[in-house]
Design brief:
The protein is an alpha+beta fold. About 35% of the residues lie in helices and about 25% in strands.
Length: about 160
C-alpha cells in the first residue's frame, strides 16, 4: 500500500464504512454539508465514556443549532452501542469500529481500543481541529466552543 500523505489521510478515513448502533452502514463522508464532530472513546458504559457521552447529549441541541453532527466511535459492537445509546438516551450516531480500522486511520488506536480523541471537520469535511488525550469531563463543552468559533468565523467571512 502506498504511503499516505498528511493531507489525504482524512479523506481516506472518511470513506471507511462501519455500522452504527442501528446496524445501518455509515461512512463519515455521509455527513458532508454539516460541521462534523467525531469523538473516539475507549469503551461503552464505562465511567469516563458515560460522562463524555452524556455531556455531548446534554449539549446536543446547541451543537444542532450550529449545524454540527456528533458521531461517537469506539471498538465496541453494534449491540453494545445500541444498549449504551438506549440506556443513556444518546441522540447521536455511534459507530461500531470493531476491527479498529477507523481508529487506526485516525491514528488513535491503542491496544485494540480507541484513545479518547476528537476531530472537528467543517461543512466541506476539511479537518479544522484535533483534540488528543482529552479528559472526559468538560470536553464536550470545549468542542462546542470550538465549533461555535468556527461557525462565527465562517459568518464573518461571508461563508
Amino acid at each position: 500500500m502506498p504511503e499516505r500523505s498528511e493531507q489525504d489521510w482524512p479523506a481516506l478515513a472518511l470513506e471507511i464504512v462501519r455500522r452504527d448502533q442501528d446496524g445501518v452502514e455509515r461512512k463519515l463522508s455521509d455527513f458532508r454539508g454539516h460541521n462534523l464532530v467525531v469523538y473516539f472513546y475507549p469503551k461503552d458504559d464505562t465511567p469516563g465514556c458515560t460522562v463524555e457521552g452524556k455531556e455531548f447529549r446534554d449539549l446536543y441541541g446547541e451543537f444542532q443549532a450550529l449545524d454540527a453532527v456528533i458521531v461517537g466511535v469506539s471498538t465496541d459492537s453494534v449491540l453494545s452501542h445500541r444498549e449504551f445509546a438506549d440506556k443513556h438516551a444518546l441522540p447521536f450516531t455511534l459507530i461500531a469500529d470493531e476491527g479498529g480500522e477507523l481508529a487506526q486511520a485516525f491514528g488513535v488506536l491503542r491496544d485494540a481500543v480507541a484513545a479518547r480523541s476528537t476531530f472537528v471537520f467543517d461543512h466541506d469535511l476539511r479537518l479544522r481541529r484535533a483534540f488528543h488525550e482529552v479528559g472526559a469531563r468538560g470536553h464536550a463543552r470545549q468542542v462546542l466552543d470550538f465549533v461555535r468559533s468556527l461557525v462565527e468565523a465562517r459568518r464573518m467571512l461571508g461563508g
